[in-house]
Each structure stands twice: as structure tokens, then as C-alpha cells.
Design a protein that fits this description.
The protein has 12 helices and 10 strands. The protein is of the alpha/beta class. Helix 3 packs parallel to helix 4 and helix 7 packs across helix 9. Helix 3 links the parallel strand 3 (59-64) and strand 4 (84-90). It has helices at residues 16-19, 40-54, 69-81, 99-106, 116-119, 125-135, 148-159, 176-185, 203-215, 238-251, 260-272, 292-300, and strands at residues 10-13, 24-28, 59-64, 84-90, 110-114, 139-141, 167-172, 190-195, 222-224, 281-285. It is globular and about 60 Å long. It has a 6-stranded mixed beta sheet, with helices on both faces. Helices cover 41% and strands 16% of the residues.
Length: 305
């Protein structure tokens, strides 16, 4: 099996807030890579799908929360590339499926609900063996899709950039996308990650381990910004909401409230506070996740326009 992804477009942002600070900002529109498997998810899944097919698996099993972009993407990819899927969902079964889970089921994914206590054990041999006894053999993709195959796919982001940049940024969940970007930079330029989870400092060690498993290297040309999580995955403030809606109105680029919205808010806040030197060129990776807007609006009211 071969999966060929076209390079995603790079769009310069024209904004007075950038001009007054002497900063150039570009967005690499990975959200446009695929209509259903957009952003970093198709990059993280690319070599996992190839590996699963090469090893003769016809079923994928993965993990995620009820609003997971990863669950959504795996369900979409499995239908396109001919796999059956099982999604192990954190928490109790839902009587009324949210838009993410409803979509996953529509693509043929079987949902297996796991209590939060059991879910914490998801990578133990006992937990995985119990799933194999229940469902038969499967190719296991970790929560968020992060493993060496995912880093290989995300490292390709760097090869596609034809702008002479100083910084490259990405939002972070499990850290696989940033890890792949760091590996792709191979010690050049500087990468900045914006964790979406409160207390994201643990990610530094996780990302270092991801990179070691991928290419056995250690890099120092990157850091994490821990001040823009807004309290965690499903947390937000009206400042964030207003920024997201204003950014779309000004630039016709939608942002999601969990990942890319927080990253872009952070970038503009850093620019406002002179955290980048005059003349800096920044590439921000739009990692998609836009499917999550409908679920967010369902939970919190129609905040994202």
C-alpha cells in the first residue's frame, strides 16, 4: 500500500499586529490535506496504516476520549484504506452519541467503552490481551497516534517548507507532531510547542523519548510554552473564543478551540510581548482538528462561528 500526501499550502498572515512588531507569520495549512483525515492525523496515521497492511492486519484498535480528533481520523482512514476499527473510549457509554462518536460509528468503528480507572491501564499486557481475547488480532495504534511511525510522517512537514523561517510552532497533545518536526529539523532552526493540557511540562520528557525511539537522537533546538492551555483540553475563556472568531473573520482561517486556537493565541500574545526578535519569520502548523468545533459548540453553546 502507498499513501501519497500532496504538500499542504503555506499562507502568509497579513496583520497589523505583526507589521508593527516587524514579524512575518505563515501558516502551513495541514487542515487542507484531506477533507476528513486532516492535519497532523493523516501524517501520523500514514506509516501506521502502511505498516498494518504490510503485516497483514485487517483491523485497527486505538484509544481516545469521546471528543477525540484521533478517533474521528482513525475511523475515516480505516474506511478509506480498507480496515475494520475498534475504538476504546474513555468513560461510560453514551445514550446520545456526540458528533465525533456518531461519525466514527457511521464509518464502521465499533466502540468499546472503558471506565476511567481501567483506561489508565490501557497499555498493560493484561488490558491488551483481554481486548485480543474479545476481538481477535489487531494492529494497535496508541492514543493520539504517537509512535515512531507517526514521527516519521510528521518529520515530512519540514521537507515541504520553502520559506526561510526562524521558528516553527505546533500545538501539542501527546507530542508526536512536535517530536516529528524536531526530528525533521535535525538540529536546525527552532521549534516551539504549545501543550493543550494543563501541566504540560511532562511532555518534554515524553517528546524526548518519542524522538529517541524514532531516530535515537537528542535535540536542544526546541522548547514548550506552558502558559496557553487555558486550563486543559475542554477549557476556554472568552478571550480565546473572541480571538478564534476574530482570526477567522480577518483571515478566513478557522481555528479549533482545543489546539490550533490556543497556539495562535499564544503566538500573537508572545509577539505582543516582544518574545520574538524583530525580523523573525514564524511558521505555524495548522494541525486541523476542526471537526471538534461541532462537539465543542454542542457542549458549550454556539460560541465558535
Amino acid at each position: 500500500m502507498k499513501i501519497v500526501l500532496p504538500p499542504s499550502p503555506i499562507q502568509e498572515i497579513r496583520d497589523d499586529r505583526l507589521k508593527v512588531k516587524g514579524i512575518q507569520l505563515y501558516i502551513k495549512r495541514d487542515d487542507l490535506l484531506h477533507p476528513e483525515i486532516s492535519g497532523n492525523k493523516i501524517r501520523k496515521l500514514k506509516y501506521n496504516l502502511i505498516q498494518a497492511k504490510n503485516e497483514g492486519f485487517d483491523t485497527l484498535l486505538t484509544f481516545g476520549g469521546a471528543y477525540s480528533n484521533h478517533i474521528f481520523a482513525v475511523a475515516a482512514a480505516a474506511e478509506i484504506y480498507g480496515f475494520k476499527t475498534i475504538g476504546v473510549i474513555r468513560g461510560e457509554a453514551y445514550q446520545d452519541l456526540n458528533p465525533t462518536l456518531r461519525y466514527a460509528v457511521s464509518k464502521g468503528m465499533h466502540l468499546h467503552y472503558s471506565s476511567r480507572e481501567d483506561y489508565r491501564k490501557k497499555y498493560t499486557p493484561e488490558f491488551v490481551n483481554a481486548l485480543r481475547n474479545l476481538y481477535g488480532n489487531f494492529y494497535l495504534i496508541p492514543e493520539g497516534g504517537t509512535n515512531p511511525h507517526a514521527l516519521k510522517g510528521c518529520a515530512e512537514i519540514v521537507k515541504e517548507i520553502d520559506v526561510n523561517f526562524d521558528y516553527i510552532t505546533a500545538s501539542c497533545g501527546t507530542g508526536g507532531t512536535l517530536g516529528g518536526i524536531i526530528a525533521g529539523l535535525d538540529g536546525n532552526k527552532h521549534a516551539i510547542g504549545f501543550p493543550a493540557l494543563k501541566g504540560g511540562g511532562f511532555l518534554k520528557n515524553d517528546i524526548q523519548q518519542h524522538i529517541r525511539k524514532y531516530n535515537d537522537s537528542v535535540y536542544i533546538n526546541w522548547h514548550l510554552m506552558l502558559d496557553y492551555h487555558f486550563g486543559g483540553y475542554a477549557r476556554y475563556s472568552m478571550d480565546l473564543i473572541n480571538f478564534i472568531n476574530g482570526f477567522k473573520a480577518d483571515h478566513n482561517i478557522p481555528l479549533d478551540p482545543v489546539y490550533t486556537g490556543k497556539m495562535m493565541f499564544g503566538i500573537f500574545d508572545m509577539i505582543r510581548n516582544n518574545k520574538f526578535t524583530v525580523g523573525s519569520k514564524i511558521i505555524a502548523i495548522h494541525t486541523g482538528g476542526l471537526q471538534g468545533i461541532s462537539g465543542f459548540n454542542k457542549r458549550f453553546g454556539d460560541l465558535i462561528h
